[in-house]
Amino acid sequence: MKLTRPLSLAVLWLAGAAGAAFAQQDPITIAHVYGKTGALEAYATQSHNGLMLGFEYYTGGSMEVAGRPLEVIEKDTQLQPDIGRALLAEAYGDDDVDLAVGGVSSGVALAMLPVAEEYGKIFIVEPAVADSITGENFNRYIFRTGRNSSQDAIANAVALGKEGVKIATLAQDYAFGRDGVAAFRDALEGTGAELVFEEYAPQDTTDFTAHAQRIFDALATEEGRKVIFVIWAGGGDPLGKIRDMEPERLGIEMATGGNILPALVAYRDFPGMEGATYYYYESPENPINDWLVEQHMERFGTPPDFFTAGGFAAAGAIVAALEATGGDTDTETLIAAMEGMSWDTPKGAMTFRPEDHQALQDMYHFRIEVQEGVEWGVPALVEVIPADQMDVPIRN
């Protein structure tokens, strides 16, 4: 396990002492509190599979750290904020878990953040995206391995932000969509591109006719290259529904960020479409990703997906932190080890920024290709966007 940030002498002393004290003692318990059922069930399944594969990889198959076995309990938020809040309190209070991971939906994750502060225990947010999680709603017990809206936005601004481009956005009308558009607007500044119109739709929208028409009307009088950038999670297929309205007759292109493999099937209808993604299994080149791809193909018959890599990274962060503390799960000791900590993931190195505990990480500029024998549109790599070249705002 690679841990690149030097630890203080105090933390190193604690690690040595804790290693002796906790060896062969009680298990380390971790709650995965996530939306196993509901509209984002596919995301949740990937996240949990990745988490468990990650624990296997980072512990060398032993499922132990510093002689203490890892135990994972699962709780289903059903994508309901009140249920997520209650279950996280149950995990910390009744189950006495050492730390928790979760938050598939940004709305649910935001409801859970105060619970971590109330109980004084770490909550690793994966994969919820809204900037406000590590922004205005942040507290010191929150660490996020998933990317945030600003990282998505900056990466997509690299792909789309060219001189004279006029962009309209379509996004879901809740934290994920609104934070995403706000971050994208900021990221476009100085690129020469301009965000000229914003349209928001309810999460369960399936008829995009009125939304698309308002966007068409807004772009109709614009000069230059015109693009609709879609920020969407879950069902509804806004790309396909808008494509059926033939935006090309008005000189309008479609663009969006990355997505899970089933959603990429619709991208086959958009060869040449550009954007940026958090993860596609062929984009990173490193031994950890090679292991993940090989094992996932062997066990599940498919490549690892978007949120499989995210769950895997969360496991890596937990193991790295516990190795640094010698298995000590005291919250303050863990926070001291995790702030500024770097660890290796299927995407390469990630680093928890000390100021807001957001994991800084590479992103990937893609261009969609239609490849024979592949049922989805392939987000072929154009360039890696390195973490150290993205000026991700600190919003808290």
What does this protein look like?
InterPro entries: BCAA_transport, Leu-bd, Peripla_BP_I. This protein has 396 residues and is α/β, with parallel strands linked by helices. The protein has two domains: 9-147 and 283-361, Response regulator (Rossmann fold, 3-Layer(aba) Sandwich), CATH 3.40.50; 150-277 and 366-389, Rossmann fold (3-Layer(aba) Sandwich). The chain is 37% helix and 21% strand. It has twelve helices and 16 strands. It has a six-stranded mixed β-sheet, with helices on both faces. It has a four-stranded parallel β-sheet with strand order 8-7-9-10, with helices on both faces. A hairpin with a 2-residue loop joins strand 2 and strand 3. Mean pLDDT is 93; it is low at 2-15.
Short description:
The protein has 396 residues and is α/β, with parallel strands linked by helices. It has helices at residues 9-22, 41-58, 81-93, 106-119, 149-160, 175-188, 209-220, 238-243, 261-264, 287-300, 306-324, 331-338; strands at residues 28-34, 64-65, 68-76, 99-102, 123-125, 142-144, 166-172, 194-201, 226-231, 252-256, 274-277, 342-345, 348-352, 359-360, 363-369, 378-385.
What layout of secondary structure does this protein have?
Blueprint: H1 9-22, E1 28-34, H2 41-58, E2 64-65, E3 68-76, H3 81-93, E4 99-102, H4 106-119, E5 123-125, E6 142-144, H5 149-160, E7 166-172, H6 175-188, E8 194-201, H7 209-220, E9 226-231, H8 238-243, E10 252-256, H9 261-264, E11 274-277, H10 287-300, H11 306-324, H12 331-338, E12 342-345, E13 348-352, E14 359-360, E15 363-369, E16 378-385
